[in-house]
Amino acid sequence: MSRARRSFLLSWLLLVAAPCFAEEPDPFPVKITATLPYVDLPRIHQGKDVRLQRNQDIDNVIDFDYSYTSRKCPPFCILPMVLSAGVETIAELEVIDYITRISNNDDSVLLIDSRTDEWLQRGMIPGAVSIPWTSLHHKHTDKKKLLDILEMRFGVVNDDNLLNFQQAKTLIFYCNGNWCGQSPTSIRSLLLLGYPPHKLKWYRDGMQAWAQLGLTTVKPPEVPAPPSEGTQKKLDNPAQEPSP
Predict the structure, then answer these.
(1) Quick check: 148 and 131 in contact, CB under 8 A?
(2) Using one digit for the tens of pLDDT, what is the confidence trace for 4-15?
(3) Domains of the chain: residue spans and CATH
């Protein structure tokens, strides 16, 4: 057999065999990282398992609620990367690491949604608990309720009105985005009480970035109905939200 004929036959065999060696379709074309398609979180939400992943539809677009680009400033101004000295600003992968710790029964950390009830029905990050900024702000709560949260939720010890933060939890706060003042207000309120800055983490980009990446959200139980158009306008009113 001539060299040319052998070369032609080999090429033909490779062409015919190529489909046999084709890779299987990737069931997770949109991964969290190159090596992490999803994270399974046992009993993370109301005692039920949740798979944290990105939306696998490559044509998916961001939810309408988070599509606004030009909210009035003030009060919805762009926040700095460093909120306060010692308070770490984190992003999605760090948040996912903390959620994984929570799902593995690490009670030394707590992920906190600082938004008011009107926003919760739009979705929360799995593993988060709702503690609105108003619950920690001295103008919107009373001393007893605030101390109850510090002691029962955050692990702070109240010794004759002297707060001991030695065993206090690491708290991760988020709200709607880098224009939203609700989680910064919560963090500043705790700093004024003496909460150690290194135990406070801020997910600056919040729900808008979480939604932009198509990451899993969950609904809290028994939340109010979605606000009407008139209520939505009130939510965008400077009088309704804390200034950053």
Answers:
(1) no
(2) 555 555 555 555
(3) 28-240 (3.40.250.10)
